[in-house]
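Posting this for the archive.
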Amino acid sequence: QVRLVESGGGLVQAGGSLRLSCVASGPAFNLTSFNLSDMRWFRQPPGKQREFVARMIPRYNSTYISDSVKGRFTISGDNAKSTVYLQMNSLKPEDTGVYYCNNILNQVDYWGQGTRVTVSS
């Protein structure tokens, strides 16, 4: 069982920045678990389907960013804290939505409760 807790959302003006955090924990979750995980960020704009934003595979130190946010968003992680971050710069109103953290460990999907980001024009 993996618990994901997102934070860092809020209201920001267009052009501003936010950093989202996702902390992974659980009864049997440890540093090795985090390293073996596939960590992702998704978002769900109002009235739309959930969409992929960014991905990080800690054991390979590899990252992937959706074309829609490339150049503005970066994903990073802190293995010691079992935390993945999403740094969002040059925010646009179309970035508004609920941002979800997703963890895939041992082929099981886990989701956080989401954190809301609102970008005003």
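The mean pLDDT is 94. Helices lie at 31-36.
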